Amino acid sequence: MPLALLALAIGAFGIGTTEFVIMGLLPQVAAEYGVTIPAAGLLVTGYALGVVVGAPLMTALGTRIPRKRMLMLLMGLFVVGNTLSALAPGFGLMLAGRVVASLAHGAFFGIGSVVAASLVAPRKKAGAIAMMFTGLTVANVVGVPLGTYIGQSAGWRATFLLVAGLGVLGLLGIARLVPERPAAEGVRLRDELAAFRDVQVLLAMAMTVLGFGGVFAAITYISPMMTGTAGFAESSVTWLLVLFGLGMVGGNLLGGIFADRGLMPLLYATLGGLGLVLALFTLTAHHKIAAAVTIVLIGGLGFATVPPLQKRVLDRASAAPTLASAVNIGAFNLGNALAAWLGGLVIAGGHGYTAANWVGAALAGSALVLAVVSGALERRTPAAAEPVASPAASVPAAAGTDTAR
Fold it and tell me: Which part of the chain is the Major facilitator superfamily (MFS) profile domain (predicted)?
């Protein structure tokens, strides 16, 4: 694999750390600013919404900027946001810093996926995308627990300064290792928007929302579920999240390998398996060992869908893939927010914490249905298997811009 993928993975590691580490530092942040825990939770919600909005916005603004330079600008924005969060004298500025950092998230992964895929031969695209996303998954195994420990020991501001430093490291790596990728000549914003006329692109994004939503319907409430139902001590929750992160790493890497061999069969297997495991979690959540094993499986099956879904969008929108790729990253976060809300509804209705797992199973099952529909449409209409064309696709200079040689 090209060294450029390492630079992209470092950036992804920093982004993954800042996205999730706040969850372990909410009590410290709330205490310093004198706000309630629910109010401090806006730091999580604001980040997620910033990703959803920022993914298409920042990608559209950078349509004519060479991709390497755009990745560097996004890492710079990420550094500014985290530095602002670390130094913010008031809660409002802290929230603003979180939103600023989040604006870089979706566009970085969207553009980074396009660049990663362009660095390797076509048969290895999903593997290259998975390698970049490994930074995000490893962040949940190393970055989040370490950042939480540092925040609890040296103060939460130290954590965000450290994350800003990771952003600087990622920026320097991109500047040194990522080859120049000029903006696609002849591709305009309306060409990028044309990808959304392809029903297969829309189906892939819907699968992203529902499938990933299934994961986070359960994981969002993992702490009260494991302490209140399985009987784990509060101190054990960190290690359970590490197990989830290990599952994410393994699932992401295996998803990258098998998506290059059989993308749709992999989606059928992982989404079906995810729905089954989430349904079983309503039972295994009552037993410590079974619950721990289930958490690993949820992380593995959930993140095994990331490379194939991202590759599916890239393949279907190959003439102008950047915006579609970034919007699909926003779809992951939309799934997180939707699932957390639905899971909260059933819990608030008095059905218990494990009821959120049924919500997750229903969402994953719905994603599987969409995958079957997508596969059936593709088999029934062979012409639909061709990617969306754009005016730029007929221009030789543009067509070769990001194709691996």
Answer: 4-382
| Residue 165 host element (H or E) | helix 156-177
CA 11, distance to chain mean position in Å, is: 13
Q: Which residue type does 225 have?
A: M
**Any idea what the CATH number is for the domain that residue 116 is in?**
1.20.1250.20
Specify the residue for token string 């994981």: 219
CB atoms within 10 A of CB 20: 20
Same structural domain for residues 10 and 116?
yes
Q: Is 383 exposed, middle or buried (0-12, 13-18, 19+ CB in 10 A)?
A: exposed
Residue 42, class by beta-carbon neighbours within 10 Å (0-12 exposed, 13-18 middle, 19+ buried)? middle
Asked whether the beta carbons of 311 and 200 are under 8 A apart, the reply is no
Please report, for residues 177, 268, 347, 398, the alpha-carbon distance to residue 145 in angstroms, rounded to integers and kept in the order given: 28, 32, 27, 44
Give the separation between CA 135 and CA 143, rounded to whole angstroms: 10
In angstroms, rounded to a whole number, what is the distance separating the alpha carbons of residues 366 and 384?
A: 22
Name the token pair of 18. Answer: 């800042």
* Amino acid in the structure at residue 213: G
Q: What is the DSSP letter of 220?
A: T
pLDDT tens for residues 228-274? 889 888 778 778 888 988 998 899 889 888 888 888 999 999 999 99
- In angstroms, the CA 71 to CA 257 distance is 25
**CB atoms closer than 10 angstroms to residue 86:** 19
How big is the CA angle at 41 (ends 218 and 164), to the nearest 5 degrees? 100
d(CA 145, CA 341): 25
Last residue of a domain, one of 183, 214, 241: 183
With H, G, I as helix, E, B as strand and everything else as coil, classify residue 318.
coil
In this structure, what token pair is assigned to residue 20? 């999730």
296/140 Cα distance (integer angstroms)? 12
Range of the domain at 363: 186-405
Same domain, 272 and 305: yes
Residue 403: phi and psi, rounded to 5, are -95, 130
pLDDT digits (tens, 9 = 90+) for 322-351: 778 778 888 888 887 788 778 888 887 888
Establish how many alpha carbons lie within 13 A of residue 187's alpha carbon, considering only the half-sphere containing its beta carbon. 33
H or E stretch at 52: helix 42-61
Q: Is residue 104 located within the same domain as residue 13?
A: yes
Q: Are 330 and 56 in contact (CB under 8 A)?
A: yes
Cα–Cα distance measured from residue 354 to residue 84, given in angstroms and rounded to the nearest whole number? 38
Cα of 269 vs its chain's centroid, Å: 20
